[in-house]
Design goal:
Helix 5 packs antiparallel against helix 6. The longest helix has 28 residues. The chain has 6 helices and no strands. With 174 residues, it is mainly alpha-helical. Helices cover 73% and strands 0% of the residues. The protein has one domain.
């Protein structure tokens, strides 16, 4: 891993950890509504740590945790389809961890490109980031030259947007 790759990985770790800490703060305020985001953010931070080549058991353990998170997201779907993003995120993290455990997380260097699953996940998260960014900008709407104080809802949107960007970055590194 080059020094630029290592620096990028650590920046991703910090981004995800800060998002997770913010979500934990929201859990205390809202009575648990942001717990799923906190778990996902800390899991993303853990997965982004540049440890060189991970042992298969480490990646398998992460994959197991994210498979459990996906099952939890399926359980949450009974409360409404708005939890579908948690399911996609959990499955994406499980996919990346299990791909790393299988040793096939990196291409062979012969221009094979991303797998179909990776490509579909890239499309999903690119769309999520673009839509989330547009919604955040539209919600901000402050006057020219002023710096409005962000509401709790806007900060939550920004946190989810940051995690979406982090997921997109991790998928691009596969």
């Amino acid at each position: 891993m080059s020094s630029a790759d290592t620096a990028s990985a650590w920046l991703l770790v910090v981004l995800c950890a800060v998002s997770g800490a913010y979500c934990l703060r929201q859990v205390r305020r809202s009575g648990g509504a942001a717990a799923g985001e906190a778990v996902m953010a800390f899991g993303m931070a853990l997965m982004a740590v540049p440890l060189g080549d991970r042992d298969g058991w480490q990646a398998l353990a992460l994959g197991t945790v994210f498979c459990a998170a996906a099952l939890h997201a399926v359980w949450l779907l009974r409360g409404g389809v708005h939890h579908a993003h948690h399911l996609v995120g959990s499955l994406a993290m499980a996919y990346m961890a299990l791909t790393a455990a299988a040793g096939s997380g990196h291409g062979d260097g012969h221009g094979t490109g991303p797998s179909l699953v990776t490509g579909l996940l890239l499309l999903y998260f690119a769309g999520y980031v673009l839509l989330g960014g547009a919604r955040l900008v539209a919600a901000g709407g402050g006057g020219r030259g002023t710096y409005p104080v962000a509401s709790s809802a806007e900060l939550s949107r920004a946190c989810r947007l940051a995690m979406g960007i982090g997921m997109l970055a991790m998928l691009l590194m596969m």
